[in-house]
Design brief:
heterodimer, A: mainly alpha, ABC transporter involved in vitamin B12 uptake, BtuC, two-stranded antiparallel ribbon, 4 strands, 3% strand, B: alpha/beta, Rossmann fold, 10 helices
């Protein structure tokens, strides 16, 4: 029983990371109206930027965290005009072209990371960030939680709660939801579509950058291929939950984390990805439009 | 109906407007004016260009040539959010309410540019449309057609507009509800709102409007006071079945 609880807790931490990634992806889909499946690659890019700054500043955590978060925000805002250019030109949502653009950006980043940083070898984050050397952060018998796991879970809960608050209780969130439901109708009531879209790029940049830091703490390392691997998972989770369905993404993201942790705990770590995808395959065969329905 | 005092001051002035969607000419050489305090109706069949005029005035469509002036200022090709901010609001064809959002949220979207005083505006709207007050926490998707139309009009009022564009409000509504909606528009007009209305329900629309324009395939064919148009033999033949 203790192993089970321990693995569920681990799974929830990992799941929080998935939830943050899926939520960022879904927000871009709903408000900016793009399929940015390389969003997790941008997150891994931000991990690398944090690692570089940590190296340059003698492992100054504050500067490292700031670098990780700001590089994701900057990357999103700098690339936003390209996506928006496609939308403006077509005068409507053009998911196909934005997908190609996203794919291209993802390939460029992955190539850059595998050629130009640390000669393409995996990077490791310093102990003063990950808290590895300090041992478990919380311990009850077999149930223990590393600092990374604890942070991922708490920050995940705080961010997702904050995000839902923003969406349902603020003026900006109202505009986000209106554009998500009916972009044309939103234009007709005078909502500033491009400006609101840009706000969603900045917000998801912040979410992505924060996730990058949590991943650095939780995983302790990163490799150039990590972004693509996460990109596949995030796309799968989003489609299985129902594209654009934020609540669905929350549930499926957490479930995937728990599933992987249980497979690792009871069976074998090396097969957890494959098993997760087998279960996701079954889910998509049973419910092609997603378990919770598309919100597009 | 239509007894509201109008002034000679022009609030909306459209001059030689041309708009095309790709190779299709949607509007050709359209000129019209709306004076302060007037209800002006655009009459015409589907595809005559009524919605195109409304959306172009609101800044949604690209203008090829011609000018649009609102309250004396040139607003040609200005973005829609700027035009809405300057005091114009559209009640779209098919209501355009957000069905997954609550009645309150829909109303607040109307006040997006100026949330100051939205509490008072909401109270005013609920006193004019008590049914919306009763349903304020329901999502708009659960409302009836007439209630949605009221919500779309109430949402326009939340923006404190000088002028309201109302696109085919009677579409898909029962005759009794249509009468209610026209009464609401006349009431709003008497409170000082200038209204540009588009309708296929020609008789009822002319009964409540001051003036009208008859459109066909993107052009204006005829214009005149409501009385002139109601007595015009061609219009009687084409639209009133007499």
């Amino acid at each position: 029983m203790e192993i089970f609880i321990a693995q569920v807790i681990n799974g929830l931490s990992l799941g929080s990371i998935y939830v943050l990634l899926v939520t960022g992806f879904n927000l871009l889909l709903l408000v900016a109206m793009i399929i940015h499946f390389s969003f997790p690659v941008v997150v891994v890019f931000s991990m690398y930027m944090a690692w570089i700054v940590l190296g340059l500043t003698g492992n100054n955590i504050f500067l490292g965290v700031a670098a990780g978060i700001s590089s994701a925000i900057l990357f999103n805002i700098i690339t936003a005009p390209m996506f928006q250019h496609i939308m403006k030109k077509r005068g409507e949502v053009d998911i196909n072209s934005t997908m190609v653009l996203s794919m291209g950006l993802g390939m460029i980043i992955t190539d850059f990371l595998s050629h130009s940083i640390n000669s393409g070898f995996p990077i490791a984050f310093p102990d003063n960030l990950t808290g590895r050397a300090a041992g478990p952060f919380i311990q009850f018998g077999l149930i223990s939680m590393s600092r990374g796991a604890f942070l991922a879970l708490t920050v995940g809960i705080v961010f997702v709660t904050g995000l839902f608050w923003l969406l349902y209780k603020t003026k900006q969130g109202r505009a986000f939801r209106a554009i998500a439901e009916d972009p044309n109708g939103a234009k007709l009531v005078g909502l500033p579509i491009l400006k609101t879209g840009l706000q969603s790029y900045a917000l998801t940049g912040f979410l992505g950058g924060s996730t990058a830091i949590l991943m650095a703490i939780l995983l302790g390392s990163a490799s150039p291929g990590l972004g693509d691997q996460l990109g596949h998972k995030v796309l799968a989770v989003s489609i299985i939950a129902g594209l654009g369905n934020l609540k669905g993404g929350l549930i499926v993201g957490l479930s995937l984390g728990i599933l992987e942790a249980l497979v690792q705990g009871y069976w074998t770590g090396t097969w957890s990805n494959a098993i997760a995808f087998v279960i996701m395959l079954i889910a998509i065969l049973v419910k092609p439009k997603g378990i919770f329905g598309m919100k597009l | 109906m239509g007894q509201n005092k109008t002034s000679d001051k022009v609030i909306l002035e459209i001059d030689n407007l041309a708009v095309s969607y790709g190779h299709v000419n949607a509007l050709k050489d359209v000129s019209l004016t709306v004076n302060e305090g007037e209800i002006v109706v655009l009459i015409g069949a589907n595809g005559a260009g009524k919605t195109s005029i409304m959306e172009t005035v609101l800044g949604v469509n690209q203008v090829d040539s011609g000018t649009i002036k609102f309250q004396g200022k040139d607003i040609t090709n200005k973005p829609a959010d700027k035009i809405v901010r300057s005091g114009m609001f559209l009640v779209p064809e098919g209501r355009g309410v957000f069905s997954s959002m609550s009645v309150t949220d829909n109303l607040l979207l109307g006040a997006h540019h100026n949330l100051k005083g939205s509490k008072e505006k909401m109270d005013y709207v609920f006193s004019s449309f008590p049914i919306l007050g009763e349903r304020k926490d329901q999502v708009a998707g659960t409302l009836s057609g007439g209630e949605r139309q009221m919500l779309a009009i109430a949402r326009a009022l939340m923006s404190s507009p000088k002028m309201i564009l109302v696109d085919e409000p009677s579409i898909g509504l029962a005759p009794k509800i249509v009468n209610d909606i026209f009464e609401i528009l006349v009431q709003l007009n008497s409170e000082g709102y200038s209204i540009l209305l588009s309708e296929q329900n020609v008789y009822k629309a002319l009964k409540c409007a001051h003036r009208g324009y008859v459109m066909e395939t993107g052009k204006i064919l005829l214009s005149g006071t409501s009385e002139e148009l109601l007595n015009n033999s061609e219009i009687r033949k084409a639209y009133l079945g007499a």
